[in-house]
Design a protein that fits this description.
The protein has two domains: about 30-135 and about 260-280, Glutaredoxin (3-Layer(aba) Sandwich); about 140-250, Up-down Bundle (Glutathione S-transferase Yfyf (Class Pi), Chain A, domain 2), CATH 1.20.1050. It has eight helices and four strands. It has helices at about 55-70, 90-95, 120-130, 140-170, 175-195, 210-220, 240-250, 250-255, and strands spanning about 45-50, 75-80, 105, 115. A four-stranded mixed β-sheet has the order 2-1-3-4, covered by helices on one side.
Amino acid sequence: MSDSQTYTPPKFWQWENQSGGKFTNINKPTSGPTYDQELPVGKHPLQLYSLGTPNGIKITVLLEELLALGHEGAEYDAFIINIGKGAQFSSGFVEVNPNSKIPALLDMSTKPSTRVFESGAIMLYLAERFGALIPTNPAEKAECMSWFFWGIGSSPYLGGGFGHFYAYAPEKFEYPINRFTMEVKRQLDVLDRNLSTRQYLSGNMFNISDIAVHAWYGTLILRNLYDASVFLDLASYKNVVRWAEEIAERPAYKRGSRVNRAPSSDDNSILERHDASDLD
């Protein structure tokens, strides 16, 4: 079965402001700030500017895990960046992240302060800064890093590929949906086979690779991301389901996954976090 119409690319591409889709109002082919506004700054060493999307909860879950391990220096303020309203294009946010994507971190404990952007870079920065949730044995660290970067490289196929064409595109076309569905299911099979002999992704130690991958694939499983659980037959990936549910029971995950999200009656989410008591 073919699409109802065939698109012929023009010789020179030009941006159409209203191209359709859920995020058409905030997507553009240029970078840089669109308005002047400074970012707020809280009282803790770490200032997080984010939103409770899969990429955002990677950082809040990691920070809560670090705090649970006793690293007091991981205390943080989490300010919400409403990407639906274009807050990522303020001059203050672009100064911290020139790519205008959440999350972005400002470490005020250094002189001058250190900016870190891209979720993977932030996770590595925090894990190495506190010497936690990352193996020190070279072989174990290599396995951890392999799965960590597997997650960083694979998740765009789930979010930007499958999620976009299945849930957000203004029209549904068979080819892109089939293409990205096939890849997402292949990735789920990779995870399922790996987790058939291991408790966690890189072995028996919970670490940043689990946090990074769980943010996308655990969310897919647990929260019926894109309303696609039946379409993707997620229940058939039993080892992934076991792993996702086990991590979701960790107290730090329960705390971190509530941050920078609109409050709801079922999970007590909070828009911003400025003190540990905000989550109590």
